[in-house]
Amino acid sequence: MNKSKDVLLEVRNLKKYFAMKKGFFGGNTQYVKAVDDVSFYIKRGETLGLVGESGCGKSTTGRTLIRLYRPTDGEIIYGGKDISKMDDKELIPYRKKIQMIFQDPYASLNTRMTIGDIIGEALDIHKIATGKEKTEIVHDLLSRVGLSPDHAIRYPHEFSGGQRQRIGIARALAVKPEFIICDEPISALDVSIQAQVVNMLSDLQQELGLTYLFIAHDLSMVRYISDRVGVMYLGKIVEIGESEELYEHPAHPYTQALLSAIPVPDPDIVKNRKRILLEGDVPSPINPPSGCRFRTRCMHAMPKCAEIEPVMKEISSGHYAACYLL
Amino acid sequence: MNKENILEVKNLRTSFFTHVGEVKAIRGVSFNLKKGEAIGIVGESGSGKSVTSMSIMKLLQHPGKIIGGDILFKEKSIVNTSEKEMQSIRGNEIAMIFQDPMTSLNPVYTIGNQIKEAITRHQNVNREEAKNKAIEMLKIVGIPSPSDRINQYPHEFSGGMRQRAMIAMALSCEPSLLIADEPTTALDVTIQAQILELMKKLKKEINTSIIMITHDLGVVADVCSRIIVMYGGLIMEEGTTEEIFYNPKHPYTMGLLKSIPRLDLGENQRLVPIEGSPPDLLKPPIGCPFAARCPYAMKICEKNQPPYFETDKNHRSMCWLLHEDAPKVEVDTCVKRGKI
Ligand SMILES: Nc1ncnc2c1ncn2[C@@H]1O[C@H](COP(=O)(O)OP(=O)(O)OP(=O)(O)O)[C@@H](O)[C@H]1O
Ligand SMILES: Nc1ncnc2c1ncn2[C@@H]1O[C@H](COP(=O)(O)OP(=O)(O)OP(=O)(O)O)[C@@H](O)[C@H]1O
Ligand SMILES: [Mg+2]
Ligand SMILES: [Mg+2]
After folding, report:
1. What is the predicted pLDDT for the residue at B340?
2. ipTM of the complex
């Protein structure tokens, strides 16, 4: 893949396996191969969208990038340095530069702290502001995400699901990070606020030169915010390219199926359109299929797909896909 | 009560008595649900969708309280039902899929044990049968290697897998009323389609009534025949799915429809959010709650809460614009039939 000096993050052959408890009768330890040999890069100021089915490894990729998990294998090169094997102390500066907005707005907020304290905490930890200045920053952040400064003295359980998600966004923004991993930041939000938040994220990107990894399953929103999009299937990236190109000319049969299944908010179309329904069950990341992982559900599968895994092939400038049809 | 209805909600009012004052989350909500019918409740974050469903389930946490109105389930008021009786109704007759999966999943038990528990509580089966049924339910909601997965704990599941485990639990007792609060937000479109099919099947085969709470208008269009649009603790508009999409009467509904991302939007076009933010329910506005953000707001809108105007037999809206003396406005609906 083409690299240039403004690449902020490069991931090479990243793997993250989780050991599963042995069954009652023991036997060999099994592994959930959540992320299994994934490579991509993100340029400074760019947004890379990451889409794929539930359980395909999107959150694990994000969590490994911010080193909540230690990778099983592979390299994570951030600003020219490999952070994949760094210890907690070496990671301190990166804990400020890289922030994550978590998928689960319930689990990620401390229920005993007020909203103001939750957002202010990061400002304390990284010694960014104190006292009145801190209060001002907190209030400003709350307004930015569509909440009111009055909310600062209230507790997370007093807020609806969508409101909590916005608190998480305000918290991530507080320390002025340069790279934000947004794990489904808008799926808990209603459409009108989704639009507000997406517009807000793009404005902030312009203003502050932020770089995003934007994880989602809503393909329409991903196209809208991403410069490039990667499609994940069962722990692997099967297609990656500029968003327009990928949406106009999806090359991998899996991408094609995903695009055809987007729900449309129009009852007439819903009744009449054709979906490419994927046949068969989602295979397990514990025993993934041999060869191409998508072959068990692919309507074009051929014998050789079961034998050797197809490699990424450049089909047009910057547009890669791994499929024997290409 | 009309015999055809499984549920009637009458002028429901729910408040939270917090340390900073009374949050008036639901301020007079009424609607009916027929047997075997699916309705959608849509509306912005904080509009009161979850609190409405928690009130029906009688699962409001302190300091939340139903302070007025009535809820009839199968012709019987459940507002004053004892917690013991409610427990047998919940899970048996009314099942709920929560917006937060961890509300119904216990982190210290395996997924399998929790689904088995739900099954044995309501069905007369032995342990082996319960286990097989649990595995089958996980398989139906698209979880691969279900027989290995039942031994895992919730934190070992991905976000969407947790949500599906909870759906499996709720559906395994074949309820007569299913309340689904954002059931598919964490799910990708293919699995979402699978789960919506499953719900439609329940509706058809065992006549389950469904209340589907979601911000995804695509989901509503797919499953529901009627839509309730909520804002600021009130129902702003109610009508058939067709009417709401193609003939909305309330400016708030129009705003919602306009903010949907569409695949035909050009790359550099901005989405059209509804400007401003929802009212603070600590001090709800005395007039129409949407007035402050409404492009058509008139003087009266700030002073008086509008009544419902019926524009059709099954279509009502709380908006002064529908008063016969109000100026006529050019309606901008955005969703054009069959074009998106
Ligand atoms: N425990 C509580 N204490 C105080 N206020 C609360 C509490 N729970 C909910 N509220 C308030 O009630 C209002 C309605 O919340 P609700 O959870 O019903 O919103 P919602 O429509 O489900 O939104 P979302 O789409 O974000 O889930 C909100 O303003 C919220 O802040
Ligand atoms: N802490 C963990 N321990 C064990 N297994 C895990 C853990 N976290 C994730 N997994 C497993 O890794 C796989 C990928 O999970 P991940 O959360 O990355 O999926 P995802 O793509 O984010 O899915 P979703 O869209 O549902 O959130 C799943 O099979 C999951 O069960
Ligand atoms: Mg995830
Ligand atoms: Mg809610």
Report:
1. 35
2. 0.82
